[in-house]
Design goal:
The strands form two sheets. A seven-stranded mixed sheet has the order 3-2-1-4-5-10-6. A three-stranded antiparallel sheet has the order 7-9-8. The longest helix is centred in the last third of the chain and has 14 residues. It is globular and about 50 Å long. The two termini are 35 Å apart. With 273 residues, the chain is of the alpha/beta class.
């Protein structure tokens, strides 16, 4: 445990970020396995438009999209810039990205299979703008990763992290089970880590208005953020009961919803000096 913390300036935020993540045993996910259904799950709210509208980019820019997945950000950005490189650890996600780009006749997208923890300026070189959309929450060597990202970017860096109300329904379900929840470190940690690196970043909360809607309880179980692969049979039955208690049916569409069941994201960005 860190000792001799007498003032806020003594706090090693990167150390406490790592400590919090190491306690979160469910932070890792098999993204190759998740790739097939990820695109369908990833288009249910207005996050993408909010994030895209916040970017400062132009037609002459080169972009590095870190943790690009199947291209939910990569593809729309490609239409506005000179070129974009999607970087992801998942081979299956990159297959989907390349397939989607080919189907749309997009020729300015490149892809690199690499873990975010392995990012190095020496290997990647410079890009005008670096994007890390929803991809840094679980990265333990965060200070080193941010240092490399800052080296790579010529003009701007844009990062989005979980907001305080993200996964609120899922957190309450764990409390319903009687489990203690180990949450991801707050975005506040990252602001302080950047400050320790001499980077004074801008921050705003993205306006996400769309709440999730489901065709059935089974659909809510499968498409929520409940990590069904980590639940036993008894917990799955409790999840079904829990959802029946909190979801409301829309009389016009028959869809189930809870207005608090929506994503919450913080955008952190800075301009290179």
């Amino acid at each position: 445990m860190k000792e001799c913390i007498k003032t806020p300036e003594d706090i090693d935020w990167a150390y406490f970020w790592a400590q919090k993540l190491e306690k979160k045993t469910d932070r890792k996910k098999d993204w190759d396995k998740a790739a097939k259904t990820f695109h369908k799950k990833n288009r249910k709210d207005d996050y993408k438009n909010e994030f895209l509208n916040s970017l400062i980019i132009n037609k002459d820019d080169t972009i590095l999209d870190i943790g690009c997945g199947e291209g939910s950000i990569t593809i729309p950005v490609s239409k506005k810039v000179k070129s974009i490189t999607g970087l992801d650890s998942s081979k299956e996600m990159l297959k989907l990205l390349n397939k989607r780009a080919e189907k749309r006749n997009i020729t300015n997208i490149n892809s690199i299979q690499m873990s975010i923890e392995d990012i190095k300026y020496e290997n990647l070189g410079n890009y005008d703008v670096v994007i890390a959309s929803r991809s840094l929450n679980g990265i333990i060597p965060i200070k080193e990763t941010l240092t490399e990202i800052n080296k790579i970017a010529n003009k701007y860096v844009f990062i989005s992290l979980f907001g305080p109300n993200n996964w609120i329904i899922e957190k309450e379900f764990q409390e319903y089970l009687g489990n203690k929840t180990n949450e991801f470190p707050s975005y506040i940690y990252l602001i302080h880590i950047l400050k320790d690196l001499g980077i004074y970043a801008n921050m705003k909360r993205l306006e996400i208005n769309d709440y999730r809607k489901y065709s059935s309880i089974e659909n809510a179980m499968e498409n929520g953020k409940f990590r069904l692969d980590l639940l036993n049979e008894g917990e799955l039955k409790k999840l079904e009961k829990y959802l029946k208690g909190i979801l409301t049916e829309d009389p016009e569409t028959g869809q189930l919803y809870n207005k608090r069941d929506k994503s919450d994201w913080i955008l952190i960005w800075w301009k290179k000096e």
